[in-house]
TrEMBL record:
It holds the Pfam family adh_short_C2. Pathway: Lipid metabolism. It comes from the Bacteria. Its EC number is 1.3.1.38. Participates in chain elongation of fatty acids. Catalyzes the reduction of trans-2-enoyl-CoAs of varying chain lengths from 6:1 to 16:1, having maximum activity with 10:1 CoA. Has no 2,4-dienoyl-CoA reductase activity. InterPro entries: NAD(P)-bd_dom_sf (IPR036291), Peroxisomal_t2-enoyl-CoA_red (IPR052388), SDR_fam (IPR002347). One of its GO terms (biological process) is fatty acid biosynthetic process. Interacts with PEX5, probably required to target it into peroxisomes. The keyword Cytoplasm does not apply. It comes from Sphingopyxis macrogoltabida. This is Peroxisomal trans-2-enoyl-CoA reductase.
Length: 282
């Protein structure tokens, strides 16, 4: 038996107007976890700026959301470039208004043994996840100009144990987690809350071996016996930014169906990454 399925993405969780008149910026908002967050913010009344490098894709997504009665603004953004970050915030402010919520979701990843990670490959992952999160958070804070605000960062459960074949992302995500804690403490006096979502098994395009027709190879290895659903990610992000979470900051909310709790006496045999056909699936 697995955990029951969550309500559909279109079912309300928070009041439909809880974010009315407010702007949420979601980096990497054109697909996957970012799109789930964008939809959740929009269904709560926010205008959502979905940012990324593929403006054509973002425009299509914004159009689809608009057809559903949701307000979305596509924004070209490479989070690795501070100047582009500033320009993106400027465009959002001029078009829709000042940003109240920031979801740092943009990321890149690919499996590679540590000794084979080139400097360019290392930077391709770490500069988006860590540098981009900092640049966007810093610009967001500066532009609040005394207004309260909320940030949610997309983290991963391997920040604690590492992940063979993923040294670049594991290191970057661990840095993001520390940044989340640091900014939460530093900016609390300004009314800015900073939290993280530690996302567990979430099968999606881009994961080696992903088959959209299955639950994914690890689904039944976790206590919940099913993977995370997109709407669960989006709703968690919206809740952490909502007025109902005003006393929550510096928290890393784990969404992994209890996977991080597993400390079984009888464990499956460890397979070295050098002996795996799929680096991430030992």
């Amino acid at each position: 038996m697995s955990f029951a399925e969550p309500p559909a993405a279109t079912d309300p969780m928070l009041p439909a107007d809880i974010f009315a008149g407010q702007i949420a910026l979601v980096t990497g908002g054109g697909s996957g976890t970012g799109l789930a967050m964008a939809e959740a913010f929009a269904r709560c009344g926010a205008t959502v700026a979905i940012a990324g490098r593929d403006i054509d894709r973002l425009t299509q997504v914004a159009g689809r959301l608009g057809d559903e009665g949701l307000s979305a603004l596509p924004v070209a953004l490479n989070v690795r470039q501070p100047e582009m970050v500033r320009n993106a915030f400027e465009r959002i402010e001029q078009t829709a208004g000042p940003v109240s919520f920031l979801a740092n979701n943009a990321g890149a990843n690919f499996p590679l043994l540590a000794e084979r990670i080139s400097p360019n490959a290392w930077h391709a992952v770490t500069r988006i996840a860590l540098d981009g999160t900092f640049f966007c958070s810093q610009e967001f804070f500066r532009r609040l100009d005394g207004r309260p605000g909320a940030i949610v960062n997309n983290l991963a459960s391997y920040v604690w144990l590492g992940l063979p074949g993923d040294a670049h992302s594991a290191a970057a995500k661990a840095g993001q987690m520390n940044l989340t804690l640091t900014l939460a403490a530093e900016w609390a006096r300004h009314g800015v809350r900073v939290n993280g979502l530690v996302i567990g098994n979430y099968p999606h395009a881009g994961i080696p071996g992903f088959d959209p027709g299955t639950e994914g190879p690890r689904a039944k290895t976790i206590p919940a016996r099913r993977p995370l659903r997109a709407q669960e990610i989006g709703r968690a992000a919206a809740f952490l930014c909502s007025p109902f979470a005003r006393h929550i900051t510096g928290t890393n909310l784990v969404l992994d169906g209890g996977d991080w709790l597993r400390r079984d006496v009888l464990k499956p045999e460890f397979v070295s990454p050098y002996e795996r056909e799929n680096l991430w699936m030992g």
